[in-house]
Design goal:
2 helices; Porin; disordered N terminus
């Protein structure tokens, strides 16, 4: 069997193991642990496709440790992503701490992104989010920063604003966001992973449906990156369906 086939099987196995652990954990403590399985037509983050425009499977797990503090993890199949050195999966591992202050919610997070099937691709980042709610609507302002690392050819700062509103009397939620990626470039080839055009804007809108444990949605995503750097960064419509265990 070709080595790539072994790596792809390992990526599938990682996602299935995460899902299996999530199911067992949810059965033990259904009120605390959150786990979701999802299929999507693309894995697009900050306007960039991590899966080269191909469909993906994703498993996520959040385990509360204390009031406001949780450990989080996700596994996404990438199937040989060109953006991430031929990686067959993305594993996002970290912790989140959230605190409610009046009508505001402040969140701090740390994440490390691993890429099975590729070498020297992992990198970490930290983030802070401030949000508030107004009836069925919510607004969030976020800053996420990846310090200088060789895997990303410098550092990376992502600033974003997002909002969501649950449509009264329906199972639908409408949301949208705008974000800006920037940073210092030390290695242009590696920096192009997260900033193909040096610095760029992305935006998107989404309509999601929730019914019990099931959810589905459509999302429009786009960037201001110009050709030829716009491969897997241009306007697209992404479909997804998920199930919460």
């Amino acid at each position: 069997m070709h080595p790539t086939d072994h790596l792809r099987r390992a990526a599938w196995l990682g996602a299935l193991l995460l899902a299996g652990h999530a199911h067992a954990a949810a059965a033990q403590n259904p009120s605390g642990i959150t786990a979701t399985l999802e299929a999507a037509s693309d894995d697009r983050r900050r306007g960039l496709s991590w899966s080269d425009g191909d469909p993906v499977l994703r498993g996520t797990l959040s385990v509360p440790l204390a009031d406001g503090l949780s450990l989080d993890g996700s596994a996404t199949t990438l199937w040989g992503s060109d953006r991430h050195g031929g990686a067959d999966a993305a594993l996002d591992l970290g912790a989140t701490y959230a605190k409610d202050l009046g009508g505001f919610r402040l969140t701090a997070e740390g994440r490390y992104h691993l890429f099975p099937g590729a070498s020297n691709q992992g990198y970490g980042e930290v983030g802070a989010i401030a949000g508030f709610t107004l009836g069925p609507a919510s607004v969030d302002f976020a800053a996420r920063y990846a310090p200088r690392q060789s895997a990303i050819g410098g550092d990376n700062l992502y600033l974003s604003a997002s909002s969501a509103v649950a449509i009264p009397g329906t199972p639908f939620t409408l949301s949208g966001h705008v974000g800006r990626s920037s940073g210092d470039v030390r290695d242009p080839v590696r920096a192009a992973r997260l900033r193909p055009d040096g610095g760029y804007w992305d935006h998107g809108v989404a309509l999601d449906w929730y019914r019990g444990r099931w959810s589905a949605g459509l999302r429009y995503a786009d960037t201001d990156i110009d050709a030829p750097d716009s491969v897997h960064a241009g306007a697209t419509l992404i479909a997804r369906v998920g199930f919460t265990l």
